[in-house]
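One such shown below:
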Amino acid sequence: MNDKKTAVCDECGSKFLISASKMKSLCPECAHILYGYESCNHVFRNGICIKCLWDGKKSDYINSKLFD
C-alpha cells in the first residue's frame, strides 16, 4: 500500500511516513517548524509516533529555531 512508504527527513534524520507530511523530504515536525505546515498530532509508543513514525529527533538548526 502506497501510504506505508517511508523516507528519512533531510533535516533531522528521522524516518517518517511519506503520507503523513506535506513535504517529501521533511518529516511533519520539521515541515511544521520550518515552513508552517500542519504538524502531526503525535502519539508516541516506544519512542516513535504511531501516526507518522517520527522519533522525536531535532537538528541543531531546528533546536535553534525553537528558542529564537
Observations:
- Residues 7-66 form one domain.
- The two ends are 40 Å apart (CA to CA).
- The mean pLDDT is 91.
